[in-house]
Specification:
binds adenosine-5'-triphosphate, five-stranded parallel sheet, Rossmann fold, nucleotide-binding, 16 helices, 47% helix, Helicase, Ruva Protein, domain 3, alpha/beta, 388 residues
Length: 388
């Protein structure tokens, strides 16, 4: 059943609609004006908002405008008084789903709510399907080293345990994080990635936790942070070892209390996001140097998945080369190229300090620069020499 928020300054209207919908099995909360309602929506999500138009503090139109900006997926139904039908029609043009006229007709409410909830679930379903179409790439490899990684993914994905993914650049840490999400019960909800190294330290707090309008000079409107965007889903904190100590303290609080506060606000917001983190740094060393908080490390590393270097699983290289040739040719709409066994052997013997990303780029380069068959000479000329 759905969670519905009824906003009206007339208590009798709130009660009539509330009781009716509760009898239908829905969970109903009420607010006296737009401002109060908007604050409640900031704290917990609602499947449907039913709002009066004329109200003190913040009216229904202003509320609708704000919701379209900050909660575009929320379905809104307006309640219009005798004189405000034109305004109600305006609201529908803006994005409200429908309106109900006063005096309230019980049957009309039930039909409108049913339709509005159906629309809401269709929007969610479409998003889920869209996400499914962008399927997560396969983890290719049959070596014992990658087999252990896959086994750990299968074991821990469906738990809500926090996972720290370690390994060098380009080994596939992000891919592991995506699979942990994909194989979890949260897979129909968002997977939100944050590259902690790419965000300047003075912006990271607002990026992670959001901000209120006017919280700082460039905060021209309210914005949800990544933790809120990941509510119900997974947040992936990539390059966590590069996060400033100040930001680490804030993340620690979010993990301990499962609550966040937007910059410029003093209100706590509950968030239910599973946290995955990755790093190519040795966090124990960073702790010893005073660059990383030990308490945060222990919060993040309930499970540790180490993704091995490609040089430690060379037996996977032929499979990966074959996989990348097929994937890149299909992607570019090119006929399938082949590669000679000697060329594969040469690729297997290379150092691959950039790991799978480097191998992928090398195969892409070979497909561009070689003929339909990739030979040992092609590898020597375009990969070995190019890599010095
Ligand atoms: N086992 C694998 N099979 C197929 N493709 C893989 C595999 N592992 C990684 N890849 C591909 O290699 C590329 C690099 O992987 P990914 O971005 O996950 O690495 P990373 O460890 O997160 O890198 P960085 O530390 O630089 O962020 C991606 O295109 C990914 O899809």
């Amino acid at each position: 059943m759905a969670k519905i928020l009824v906003i009206d300054d007339e208590r009798s209207i709130r009660n009539i609609i509330g009781e009716l919908l509760e009898m239908e099995g829905h969970t109903v909360k009420t607010a006296e004006n737009g401002l109060q309602g908007y604050e409640m929506i900031g704290v917990e999500p609602f499947d449907l908002v039913i709002s009066d138009i004329k109200m003190p503090e913040m009216d229904g139109i202003e509320l609708l405008d704000k919701l379209i900006e900050t909660h575009p997926d929320t379905t809104v139904v307006m309640i219009s008084g005798h004189g405000s039908i034109d305004t109600a029609v305006e609201c529908i043009k803006k994005g409200a789903f429908d309106y109900i006229e006063k005096p309230i007709d019980m049957n009309r409410i039930l039909v409108t709510v049913k339709n509005a909830l159906e629309r809401g679930s269709l929007v969610k379903e479409t998003k889920t399907l869209r996400r499914k179409v962008h399927k997560v790439a396969e983890i290719v490899g049959e070596s014992p080293a990658i087999g252990r990684v896959k086994m750990l993914i299968d074991k821990v994905a469906s738990t809500d345990a926090r996972v720290l993914i370690t390994g060098s650049n380009g080994t596939g840490k992000e891919l592991v994080a995506r699979w942990l999400h994909e194989k979890s019960d949260r897979s129909s909800m968002p997977f939100v990635e944050v590259n902690c190294a790419a965000i300047p330290s003075e912006l990271i707090e607002s990026e992670l936790f959001g901000h209120e309008k006017g919280a700082f000079t460039s905060a021209i409107k309210q914005r949800k942070g990544k933790f809120e965007q990941a509510d119900g889903g997974t947040i992936f904190l990539d390059e966590i070892g590069d996060m400033s100590l100040a930001a680490q303290a804030k993340v620690l609080r979010a993990l301990q209390e499962r609550k966040i506060t937007r910059v410029g606000s003093d209100k706590d917001i509950n968030v239910d996001a599973r946290v995955l983190a990755a790093t190519n740094k040795n966090l124990q060393e960073e702790i010893a140097k005073g660059n990383f908080r030990e308490d945060l490390y222990h919060r993040l590393s309930v499970i540790i998945i180490h993704v091995p270097n490609l040089s430690d699983r060379r037996e996977d290289i032929p499979l990966l080369v074959d996989h990348f040739i097929r994937a890149i040719c299909a992607d570019k709409g090119k006929p399938l190229s082949t590669i000679t066994p000697e060329a594969v052997e040469a690729l297997c013997a290379m150092p691959w300090t950039g790991n799978i990303r480097e191998l992928h780029n090398a195969v892409e380069r070979l497909l561009i620069l070689s003929g339909r068959e990739i030979t040992l000479d092609d590898v020597k000329l375009n990969v070995m020499q190019a890599n010095g």
